[in-house]
Every structure is written in C-alpha cells, then in structure tokens.
Amino acid sequence: MDTLGLIWGLVVHAADVQDRDGAKLLLEKVQGCFSRLKLIWADGGYAGQLIAWAQQVCGWVLEIVKRSDNAIGFAVLPKRWIVERTFGWFGWYRRLSKDYEELTENSEAIILVCMIHRMLRHLKPAELAVGWEM
Questions:
Q1: pLDDT tens per residue across span 87-100
Q2: Is the pTM of this model over 0.90?
Q3: 62: three-class secondary structure by DSSP
Q4: Residues 61 and 39 sit within 8 Å (Cβ to Cβ)
Q5: Residue 50 CB contacts under 8 Å (≥ 6 apart), including other chains
Q6: Which of the 8 DSSP states describes residue 115?
Q7: Domain boundaries in the chain?
Q8: By the number of CB atoms within 10 A of the CB, which of 38, 69, 120, 123 ranks highest?
Q9: What is the per-residue pLDDT across 12-21, written as a single tens digit (0 to 9) for each?
C-alpha cells in the first residue's frame, strides 16, 4: 500500500506461508507496474534474505522499520501505523471481519471491493456513506 493506506497490490495466501515468502509473491506480482517505486517499508518479519532479493530482482530498497530498543510500552512507529490503520478500515466491512471465504481469490476480491468503496466515499461521502454493507 502507499503512504495514504491505499492498496496497490494484493496477495492473499494460506496462513502457513511465511511473511517473507508471501512478500516475494506480492513483489513478483507488482514488479514492473510501478516505475517510480524506489523504497518499501516493512516490519521485522520481512528482514533477512528478502532485503537482498528485493534489491537484486526488483531493484527496490526494502527498509525495515524497527522499534527502538529504548522504547517502553506502546510506541507509534513511523510508517507502520499506516498499514494498521488500513487493516482497521477492513474491520468496518462485515465480510472482512469474519473468516467467511474458502478461496484466497475470493478474499482478494472482497478486499479490493472494500478499498474501491473506501476510495469512492472520499469522492462522494454523502451518497455512499449510508446503506452500504457487505
């Protein structure tokens, strides 16, 4: 997703797939689509060989946003809150708040429809805010 929290690429996979492996699936899928993309922020779950792989294969810098060693309790981390906010938006849609889908393709489609709805609400908030549930 971008810094506004809008999804630019999406891959839904089984829970037994490691984050780093899932990230490779996504980066391979969007490779060549975003010519201006230079930097990707990620959390510690994506550290390791993925950083070098993203640079070599895709030409992107993968920067890990880490929590400070001096931080005590909850701390807002730069750029990572954007992802969490977007996941919070998904909770507004009942279809995404429960695990209804059996196929990953269906889950991807529902997420994209919800993001389209969210973007349309920013264009015409009054008309789309009432009476739309998924």
A1: 888 888 888 877 77
A2: no
A3: strand
A4: yes
A5: 20, 23, 24, 42, 62
A6: H
A7: 19-128
A8: 120
A9: 998 899 989 9
